[in-house]
């Protein structure tokens, strides 16, 4: 199993910056890709940014040029640097990891793990 814990959220003024961190524990060696999602009240949870084991990244159009996702596999951490924050960035931000559960003979299943979320509030 893999457990995830987010931190770094808070209240900031528009135009400011925050850095979110996600720490993985458990069977961290089995993690493939990781991602940041966010969910505002009344909205669907949306993908913000993702990064695979090779370091390739993808971003939602709404955050391109402002957010940077990074990952330190050795330290089992993933960060999201958020710059030029806007009120519409206000949401609960979640860390997600997909990982392999391997069985005898090399067969495996793919599982997802989610953190508890960290609140980001951007005031006008």
Written description of the protein model:
This protein is an all-beta fold and 124 residues long. Helices cover 0% and strands 60% of the residues. It is built from no helices and eleven strands. The protein has strands spanning 2-7, 10-13, 18-26, 31-39, 46-51, 57-59, 67-72, 77-82, 91-102, 108-114, 118-123. Strands 2, 4, 5, 6, 9, 10 and 11 form a seven-stranded mixed sheet that branches. Strands 1-3-8-7 form a four-stranded antiparallel sheet, with no helix packed on it. The chain is elongated, with a radius of gyration of 15 Å. The termini are far apart.
How do you describe this structure in short?
The protein is mostly beta strands and 124 residues long.
Molecular shape: elongated
Q: Mean of residue pLDDT?
A: 96
Low-confidence segments, ≥5 residues, pLDDT <50? none
Biggest sheet features: 7 strands, mixed
Order of helices and strands: EEEEEEEEEEE
Helicity, in percent? Answer: under 10%
Number of strands: 11
Relative strand content: over 45%
> Distance N terminus to C terminus?
40 Å
Number of helices: 0
Query: From the helix content, strand content and strand pairing, which structural class follows?
Result: mainly beta
State Rg. Answer: 15 Å
């Amino acid at each position: 199993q893999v457990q995830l814990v987010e931190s770094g959220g808070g209240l900031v003024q528009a135009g400011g910056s925050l850095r979110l961190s996600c720490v993985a524990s458990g069977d961290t060696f089995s993690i493939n890709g990781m991602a940041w999602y966010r969910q505002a009240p009344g909205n669907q949870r949306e993908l913000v940014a993702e990064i695979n084991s090779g370091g390739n990244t993808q971003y939602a159009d709404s955050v391109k040029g402002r957010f940077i996702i990074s990952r330190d596999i050795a330290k089992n951490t993933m960060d999201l640097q958020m710059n030029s924050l806007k009120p519409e960035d206000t949401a609960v931000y979640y860390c997600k990891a997909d990982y392999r559960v391997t069985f005898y003979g090399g067969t495996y299943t793919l599982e997802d793990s989610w953190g508890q979320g960290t609140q980001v509030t951007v005031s006008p």
